[in-house]
Amino acid sequence: MAARSDTSDLTESQRWLARSEAVIPGASQTMSKGPTQWVQGVAPSFVVRARGARVQDADGRWYLDLPAALGPIILGYGHPGVDAAIRAQLEDGITFTLPHPLEVEVAERIQRLVPCAERVRFGKSGSDATSAAVRIARAATGRDHVVVAGYHGWHDWYVGATSRRRGVPDVVKELTTTVAPWDLEAMRAALVAHAGEVACVVVEPIGTREPGEGELQAIVDLAHEHGALAIFDEVISGFRVGLGGAQERYGAVPDLAAFGKALGNGMPISALAGRAEVMEVLEDVFFSGTHGGEALSLAAARATLDVLQEEPVHEHLWRLGRRLADGVREQVARHALEEWVSVGGAAPWTLVLVREPHPGGEGLAAKSLLQQEMLRRGVLYNGSNFISYAWTDEDVDEVVEAYGGAFERLASALPDDVPAQLEGAPVGSVFRAVS
Ligand SMILES: Cc1ncc(COP(=O)(O)O)c(C=O)c1O
Which of 206, 252, 335, 388 could form a Cys-Cys staple with 411, CB 3.0–4.6 A? Predict the structure, then answer.
């Protein structure tokens, strides 16, 4: 391991981390924010405030923030319109004994914007919305099996089919078949293997790449041919790639869709939307929580949607996102890293991923080195580039330059000298390969 070369102070971060480890298992509420996902001794562990495109760590250093709280920050941290809406609602109250009109207003807005949204319900997390969608599909079809590609949250029906499935009963695991994203033949094979049993096919409409022409519609058609419902998990793509989500942009309408993240610009709100006939089962099916109609988040959602509708947010995200992706690709080429580094996703959310020279070894050494070098250049990096409306062309230039410098270090260390260049223990995978 290399000696620490960074001069940034991590004293307060490390103090908080030590306290956290004594009281919070995993030292975080969110796997990808915890210490296993950030190079220890190099990365800050705690953030105390954020503005626009940047966050400030517990020791006072500001970073450009690529993961942006894992996706919800679409307008920028501390957007004045959204923050004012939250403060104004606070004057009237947070949550009540009966529904608040905001529930109707925001649902109506989503109904107008999202193609599949004949009916809308709210939850707090993306997992609420995806799990409700699966339960509805099971109730509507009278079937139990689920065919799934992509990531869909922490609940049993999904996590049972991953490598982190401790605590999920085998009987639950057996009800989910996982296929690789975009592998239509594997999807068909799973539907055939479980003929008459599959309630739904659940996919992320954008993942490591955008869908090709007709690809999403082919998934919808395939599900329907086998009597299953098509569910799009738009927790990331929803409101980020366009007002009507990926379903509008790529022209394929699912039966049900889950939304979250960008809807509240950081406030905890998710939405489940779908065809009226399918959503009607919610008269019977139990999807209910104390905080489902919490009004501060709904006020934030209404204000976020106002800005998305009134200002050229999506034009900005696509233009800057393309500049960022093009700039990163140029740096990849300049350092001859094409074999090692991929740039994928869609412009408003790009993925910059590194292939590990020794997969299955101790942690993700190459990803860690890239993260370490980005941190030294003042950028938080975890693979996801979630830009926001607050980003400027200069921010993009700064990040591309940081990638360039980090790639130079990476290129000189690959394939065998990477661990020796690390100044802290390497980060690990959230999920290992599913056996
Ligand atoms: C595509 C997708 N679906 C579902 C979820 C789960 O959302 P949450 O973490 O809000 O429960 C996530 C979270 O990252 C996601 O990326």
Answer: 335
> Which tokens is 205 given?
């409409």
Q: Residue 213 contacts by C-beta under 8 Å, 6 or more apart in sequence?
A: none
In terms of residues, how long is the chain?
435
Helix ranges restricted to H, 194-312 = 215-225, 245-249, 276-279, 295-310
Cα four-point dihedral sign 70, 72, 76, 77: negative
pLDDT digits (tens, 9 = 90+) for 406-430: 999 999 999 999 999 999 999 999 8
Find the CATH number of the domain harbouring 124. Answer: 3.40.640.10
CA of 2 to the centre of ligand 1 (A): 35
The residue type found at 391 is W
Per the structure, the count of domains in the chain is: 2
- pLDDT tens-digit profile of 330-365? 999 999 999 999 999 999 999 999 999 999 888 999
Q: Are residues 247 and 360 in the same domain?
A: no
Q: What is the pTM of this model?
A: 0.97
Alpha-carbon separation of residue 321 from 174, 246, 338, 343 (angstroms): 39, 16, 20, 12
* pLDDT top residue among 1 and 288: 288
Q: Cβ distance 282 to 292 under 8 Å?
A: no
What atom of ligand 1 comes closest to residue 124's alpha carbon? 10
Joined tokens for residue 99? 């529904």
Pocket (CB within 6 angstroms of ligand 1): 70, 125-127, 130, 151-153, 204, 233, 235-236, 260
CA Rg, the chain, in Å?
A: 22
Mean of the pLDDT values across residues 268-286?
A: 98
Which one, of 126, 106, 414, 395, lies nearest residue 259 by Cα?
126
Distance CA 124, CA 129 (A): 8
**Identity (one letter) of the amino acid at 1?**
M
Each residue of 357-385: b (16+ CB within 10 Å) or e? beeeeebbbbbbbbbbbbbbbebbbbbbb
- Does 129 reside within a domain? yes
Query: What's the pLDDT score for residue 369?
Result: 98
Q: Is residue 82 part of a domain?
A: no
Domain match, 205 and 70 both: no
- Closest atom of ligand 1 to 261 CA is 10
Which residue lies with its CA nearest to atom 4 of ligand 1? Answer: 152
* β-strand pairing of 384-386 with 379-380: unpaired
Domain that holds residue 69: 11-77+313-421
pLDDT for residue 5: 67
Determine the Cα–Cα distance for residues 206 and 352; give it in Å rounded to an integer. 15
Regarding whether 203 and 175 lie in a shared domain, the answer is yes
Assign residue 69 the CATH number of its domain. Answer: 3.90.1150.10
